[in-house]
Write a structure and sequence with these properties.
Layout lengths: L4 E4 L5 H14 L17 E8 L2 E2 L4 E9 L9 E7 L15 H4 L11 E6 L2 E5 L13 H5 L1 E10 L9 H12 L5 E10 L15 E4 L2 E2 L6 E3 L4 E7 L7 E6 L2 E6 L2 E7 L3 E2 L3 E3 L6 E4 L16 E10 L4 E10 L8 E6 L8 E6 L4 E6 L2 E2 L1 E6 L4 E5 L6 E9 L4 E10 L1
Parallel strand pairs: 3-9, 12-21
Antiparallel strand pairs: 1-9, 2-4, 4-7, 5-6, 5-8, 8-9, 10-11, 10-13, 13-19, 14-15, 16-18, 16-20, 17-19, 20-21, 22-23, 23-27, 24-25, 24-28, 26-27, 28-29
Amino acid sequence: MSRASTTRARSPTSGRVRGALVFFLVGSACTNATFPPETLVGDLRVLSIASEPPEVGPGETSRLSMLKTDPAKAGAVSTVIWVGCEPDPQDLGRSACNDASILLRPTQITDYPPGLQLLGFGLSAQYRSTATVFDVLAQDSPIRRAGSVGQVLGLVIGEEVDPLATGDQLREYFARIERKETPVVVSLTRVLVSEKPPEQRNRNPGIVDLLVDGVRHPKNGRLPVKAGGRLALTVGVPDDVRQSYVEARPSGDVTLTETVVGAWYSSGGRFSRERFDVTSDDATTFIAPGSTEFPEDPVPERRTGTIWLVVRDNRGGQAFDRYPFFVCDPSLPNPSVTGIAPPATPDGQVVVTGENLSATLDVVVGDVALNRGSFNASAGTFVGDAPALAAGSYAVKVRGRNCNDADTGLRYVVP
């Protein structure tokens, strides 16, 4: 499987914090206190690591991407370092990534044990096994078809790391982690390497649409929600999201069908359930911050937050997406759009004119919101990236920060 598992390095004060937490839990056992749900993300966490594709042939490449969050420290500096290990097709536990001491003493990484390599820096990297990974096996070995896992460590370090750092410089970064001077979150994922034909390999589940109260959410758009309001969330996935596959057993091959599960997370608010079958039509209710039912979950100071969705199959495939939300301010006026102009240059932005545009949440063209849409105070306009749409004429809708939407009567033409 490739579900990310997480290890947190303890800070110098973590022992005292842990003791205080235990005391609080014991002292509050007989009260009506409501504890934060598992889905609430308030600190640095790695929610998912997806490999595309999740299964490759020997010598082929998979692209790794990480979904990490740290709502409590927006803009805080951190660096992702990727380390990969070659599969061990003989399953003798010889992979350097199998050595748990690396999690406790990451300076060992810079010794580059056999089979371990530094994959890169940043939110994405590439993993590639050697073309000769199965040469130690007989040609009729079932492992060639069943596959062997290549393990990957994603280390999120709480400081800026020079991507051109030498081995000695990296060793010093890792030494500060061991001395608990720098926080780190370590996540483990796996890429399956096999000799299956490409059409029989596992693929990642896809996320096609998010439906809010039964209506397709505009791509790139923000979710408007009233304080304490409730939204019915449903996920659209491909019809063939659940793959059939063959599993070898002592009694013979068995054909199985995947299970595909979605998981919700958010920086504020809570959900009626944490996990769900993505092939079900049952909606998950999102309860926005500001509910009188949950006074410990107030409206954020800037009224903004994020919902994250992670979809996983039971063979290691993953996909994720993020949906920013805005807790509406009913005191704001309705924005009015009188004009919309396409970019004047290839790298320019769409320019929207009208009244009260500072109260605009999104401008939606067809079913796509202007990406990175924002109010330009100096020009009194609302601007955003041009929507990626096929040639045609599209209706334009404005969504207000007061939770009111309006059709503008305008058309946006894509030549």
